[in-house]
Design goal:
With 216 residues, the protein is α+β, with helices and mostly antiparallel strands. It contains five helices and eight strands, in the order ααββββββαββαα. 31% of the residues lie in helices and 29% in strands. A hairpin with a 2-residue loop joins strand 5 and strand 6. Helix 1 packs antiparallel against helix 2 and helix 3 packs antiparallel against helix 5.
Length: 216
Amino acid sequence: METLGDLLYKVQEFANHSFNKDDAERIFGWPVEDVAFRNAEKDETSVVIAFKNRLALYAWYFLNLDPTENEDTCEFMLKLRIDLKSSIKYNVFYSGYIHGQGYIRLQIEETDNVLAQRIAEDFYAPALKMIYKPIIIQFRGFYSRDYFGVESYRNRGEIYYSPIRSRSENKDVEISKVIGRFHELDSLLREPEVRHSLAELDLQLSFLPGIVWSKR
């Protein structure tokens, strides 16, 4: 495999086999740690393959109702698992290019706890944007519409690249370039100043009443 398009072909081939570790290792050529799949809806199946090299492949297979289209039946995202954790699940990614600056898009976990949601929107989200603002340009992609992002959860974090489908302009990107950028971004997020700022933000959240986060 050289390009993401080659990897997409492997993802399509994987759908014709059992979703198990042996088939995954044979098709993708990387040692596999685990494979999980589920039918989210009757017309879609999602598969997650965790490789032993810290890469993870998230694939979605869906029913295509267009009889003239026989290739656009799935999409995938390639991710790198990292040790970045957060009290609140969030997703930060690069979007567009405005006046020479990268544009931050931020999504935070929603909760039924009204007070927790208000704190997350009014305090946590703006503070998180300020931390990522100086480095978001590093998350830009290789083309005009592709991008990199980072997701953080209570027990793990992941750096990811934008989705790949048969019509994606970025399917010609070399896999090695994507993996190389993953590790560059991982090193960036490990820098003491960034980690200190993120840890300090989480510490400030810990001072809030425990009942606020009891349902998270």
